[in-house]
């Protein structure tokens, strides 16, 4: 049987006063005892004066140290003067008269009644809830007055917290009762910032507090948004089940959102930083080992190019971006596949959801989320069919983890369908000159203003209808994307086989089309067409496993135009260059003598070229495509040629030309140039010459398909 012990309340014998009554009684008794002892020992009255003076001095010093209120200090000084005066009087005369003790009693009674004035604690706010330090109290009082002046709201500031960055502070406010809501305060944010004379670019954010009646005013005093922040070079694995981060808020909080279920809409005028933000998001999502990034960029694939180059150049085995669509036809394929996957997952993973006791598809590296990032969504929704597909995907893809992130020039219904905006939980408006864009995006009483932002790369983000918060997106440059791409190519997951099956042939053959399309985006925008690349699927074109019998065939895929000619057939019809021309490089089937291999190669195809060797020698033959291309340069008597012009000269398309030259390390120049009044991208003769030299030196192994081109 157990015993229970009950703790008895212990008597408190200490002499510490427990309240104003006991403190007054104790003080009065002590004074009477002192007067009695002084009278018996005939103490000099001067000691009474000395004790009074010491008490007064101590009151002032300790009061200042403890931040005692002025009324507290005056009360204590009055007690010392009254008590000390009485003691001095009794020492000079005698305490043993009725009047003397009556005076002591009246003094004690007065002191007891006025005791609350003597509180040693600093002044509390009106609600008496929070302790505010002197500096904070001043700021708090200012904001209480400001809220009354600007918003006609008699609110109580309960605390002021300075940000660790020193760039602002939070004002914690309790709203008064009587129907005042946080929303009402939001519309005054701009007016409050103006009244507070905040520096340019700084503002007041109205955020929720610990309960519905509590509000946090985030006041920035330094324009941190004006400082460029580069993407932190951290590409370590992450999860889509946690918020992704794309920048910083004014108080240096990470700016980001959870995108497992919510789709994202980003609007901003040209050059406001949308693509940079999408790149931030691509890095952040690419790092997630339970997420696959797909790009849909109808603006020429600029979003994807810095990611895909490392794969096209053969520096990684897997493409960091699982699927990229640079044209309408491919975009439709992609979104159709996304819908098929979402529908399939809905039906097929019921048991998995039951096993995890969740309604939401449990994503993992084996069953990754697919996030489709759409740059220039307005272009996508211009096409009715693609618009319908995107809307359907947005409607059905949430649970099944096929999500959309869309950018557009404006958040208006002409560019983003109303339903699409309404279904979007994470809304971002980038900086721009037009205040009304904020109204279109966040509603007309959001209380935010473009003045709070600091130009390109800054914007407002609203999560699930919350008050928009300003942020600065990380700046990410191509070199850093390349670094990220190299890592992400190795860490990103593969699509689960069931989803890949559901997506069908479009998904299976995407790499072929991507390689062809991105190898030369300047190709005569055959955006509606699709060709298969003559290499194995999962390998970049520069490091293909060379098949024994290369597939020299361009397959017309479903829906593609059937007018695509086989480049090899086309090439056969090309007239060979006239013998002895300036560009008459060694025939690929002839062999060089060792001495010839060491001979300096021509630096310019227009310059005299080495004589054709007299006899076949072991060495590295120059591929026909390179030989003919150099010949075309010589014919044109130019150092640079547009892709289309060069391809025309060779009787093939620019895409085919790019596919043939890229494995030899020859790509188009990064910048467009003007020829015959037209600006386009193209090739430099010196790049072809350098490739020829590298082949001669044995530094490049010419893939079988390229070496045999254009043979049947
Ligand atoms: N976060 C940022 N930090 C610093 N500079 C930025 C940032 N974002 C964008 N910029 C600057 O703004 C320029 C335009 O950015 P970006 O191409 O991302 O804009 P955009 O809205 O996509 O433009 P467009 O619609 O014309 O493609 C960039 O070249 C860069 O100089």
Automatic annotation (TrEMBL):
Keyword Magnesium assigned: no
PROSITE patterns in the record: FTSK
One example GO MF annotation: DNA binding
FtsK domain segment(s): 241-439
Residues at which ATP binds: 268-275
Annotated stretches, region: Disordered: 565-620
Sequence intervals crossing the membrane: 46-64, 73-92
InterPro entries for the chain: FtsK_dom, P-loop_NTPase
Biased composition annotated in UniProt, kind: Pro residues: 610-620
Keyword field: ATP-binding, Membrane, Nucleotide-binding, Transmembrane, Transmembrane helix
UniProt protein name: FtsK domain-containing protein
Record organism: Microbispora oryzae
High-level lineage: Bacteria, Bacillati, Actinomycetota, Actinomycetes, Streptosporangiales
């Amino acid at each position: 049987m157990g015993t229970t012990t009950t703790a008895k309340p212990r008597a408190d014998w200490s002499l510490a006063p427990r309240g104003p009554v006991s403190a007054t009684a104790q003080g009065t008794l002590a004074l009477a005892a002192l007067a009695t002892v002084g009278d018996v020992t005939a103490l000099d009255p001067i000691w009474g004066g000395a004790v009074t003076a010491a008490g007064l001095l101590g009151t002032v010093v300790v009061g200042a140290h403890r931040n005692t209120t002025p009324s507290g200090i005056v009360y204590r000084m009055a007690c010392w003067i009254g008590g000390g005066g009485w003691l001095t009087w009794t020492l000079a005369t005698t305490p043993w008269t009725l009047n003397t003790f009556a005076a002591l009693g009246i003094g004690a009674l007065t002191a007891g009644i006025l005791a609350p004035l003597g509180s040693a604690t600093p002044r509390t706010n009106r609600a008496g809830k929070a302790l505010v330090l002197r500096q904070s109290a001043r700021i708090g009082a200012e904001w209480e007055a400001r809220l009354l002046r600007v918003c006609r709201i008699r609110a109580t500031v309960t605390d002021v917290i300075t940000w660790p960055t020193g760039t602002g502070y939070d004002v914690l406010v309790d709203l008064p009762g009587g129907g005042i809501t946080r929303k009402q305060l939001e519309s005054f944010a701009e007016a409050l910032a103006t009244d507070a004379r905040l520096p340019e670019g700084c503002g007041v954010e109205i955020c929720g507090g610990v309960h519905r009646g509590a509000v946090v005013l985030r006041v920035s005093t330094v324009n941190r948004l004006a400082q460029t922040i580069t993407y932190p070079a951290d590409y370590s694995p992450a999860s889509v089940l946690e918020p992704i981060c794309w920048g910083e808020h004014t108080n240096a909080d990470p700016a980001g959102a959870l995108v497992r279920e919510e789709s994202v809409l980003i609007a901003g005028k040209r050059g406001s930083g949308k693509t940079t933000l999408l790149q931030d998001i691509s890095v952040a999502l690419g790092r997630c080992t339970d997420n696959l990034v797909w790009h849909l960029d109808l603006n020429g694939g600029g979003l994807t190019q810095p990611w895909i180059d490392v794969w096209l150049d053969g520096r990684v085995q897997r493409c960091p971006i699982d699927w990229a669509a640079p044209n309408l036809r491919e975009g439709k394929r992609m979104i159709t596949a996304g819908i098929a996957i979402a529908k399939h997952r809905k039906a097929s993973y019921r048991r998995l959801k039951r096993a995890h006791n969740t309604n939401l598809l449990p994503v993992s590296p084996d069953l990754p989320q697919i996030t489709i990032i759409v740059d220039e969504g307005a272009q996508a929704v211009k096409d009715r069919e693609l618009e319908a597909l995107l809307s359907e995907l947005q409607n059905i893809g949430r649970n099944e983890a096929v999500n959309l992130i869309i950018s557009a020039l404006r958040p208006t219904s002409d560019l983003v369908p109303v339903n699409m905006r309404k279904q979007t939980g994470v809304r971002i408006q980038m900086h721009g000159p037009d205040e009304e864009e904020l109204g279109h995006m966040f509603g007309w009483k959001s209380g935010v203003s473009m003045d709070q932002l600091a130009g390109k790369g800054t914007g407002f983000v609203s999560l699930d209808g919350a008050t928009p918060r300003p942020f600065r997106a990380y700046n990410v440059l191509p070199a850093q994307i390349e670094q990220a791409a190299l890592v992400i190519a190795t860490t990103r997951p593969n699509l689960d086989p069931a989803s890949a099956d559901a997506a069908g042939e479009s998904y299976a053959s995407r790499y072929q089309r991507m390689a062809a399309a991105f190898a030369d985006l300047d190709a005569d925008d055959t955006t509606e067409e699709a060709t298969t690349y003559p290499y194995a699927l999962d390998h970049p074109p520069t490091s293909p496993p060379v098949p024994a019998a290369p597939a020299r065939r361009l397959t017309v895929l479903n829906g593609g135009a059937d007018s695509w000619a086989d480049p090899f057939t086309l090439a056969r019809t090309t007239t060979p260059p006239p013998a002895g021309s300036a560009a008459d490089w060694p025939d690929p089937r002839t062999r060089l003598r060792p001495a010839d291999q060491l001979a300096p190669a021509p630096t310019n195809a227009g310059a005299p070229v080495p004589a054709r060797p007299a006899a076949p020698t072991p060495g590295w033959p120059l591929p026909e495509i390179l030989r003919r291309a150099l010949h075309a340069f010589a014919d044109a008597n130019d150092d640079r040629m547009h892709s289309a012009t060069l391809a025309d000269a060779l009787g093939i398309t620019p895409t085919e030309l790019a596919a043939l030259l890229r494995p030899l390390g020859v790509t188009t120049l990064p910048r467009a140039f003007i020829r015959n009044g037209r600006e386009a991208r193209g090739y430099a003769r010196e790049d072809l010459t350098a490739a020829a030299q590298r082949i001669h030196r044995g530094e490049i192994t010419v893939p079988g398909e390229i070496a045999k081109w254009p043979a049947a």
